[in-house]
UniProtKB/TrEMBL annotation:
Cellular component GO terms held in the UniProt record: endosome membrane; lysosomal membrane; plasma membrane
A single GO molecular function term of this UniProt record: heme binding
Protein's organism: Thrips palmi
Homology family: Belongs to the HRG family.
Highest taxon above the source species: Eukaryota
Chief location: membrane
Lineage: Eukaryota, Metazoa, Ecdysozoa, Arthropoda, Hexapoda
Keyword vocabulary terms for this entry: Endosome, Lysosome, Membrane, Transmembrane, Transmembrane helix, Transport
Membrane topology: Multi-pass membrane protein
PANTHER family: HEME TRANSPORTER HRG1 (PTHR31525:SF1)
Name by which UniProt lists this protein: Heme transporter hrg-1-like
Amino acid sequence: MAGRSCMHYVRLVCSCIGVAVGLLACATFAVPSPYQHITASGLAFISAVFAAVCLTLHALHHRSVLQVYHSSETLNDLSKLGFCVFVIGFALTTWFIFDGVYHKMGMKPFADSPYISAVWSFMTAKWGILLWSASRMYSGLMNSGSLLGD
């Protein structure tokens, strides 16, 4: 049966954790408090969205219905989207780190810290590259016909 390997369960669990942590961080950084950081809140939400897309792909493959909801073309489009998100997230990470080092900014106060934004832009980039990888993997399985026989 499709998707019963140990690595597949690891992907499902990591995606679930990514969605939960992204949404919790979004809520934490959005409320008025000493930890309020609107940029990090937005990036955490975007990260959670792409973790949810990865979770959806893994769950559909786990249930052996991925070919019902996606074609090879839609998986290729998701792959392209994931790569674009990776590039943008990595560029933002580089910018936030450069900004913090250049202006000699510390980690506190949290509302002005570019390092917190760098962490969440990196997490967004990570989910972009994981979406790219998963959609390419499932597209390859679909093109080889191994998903159709499951």
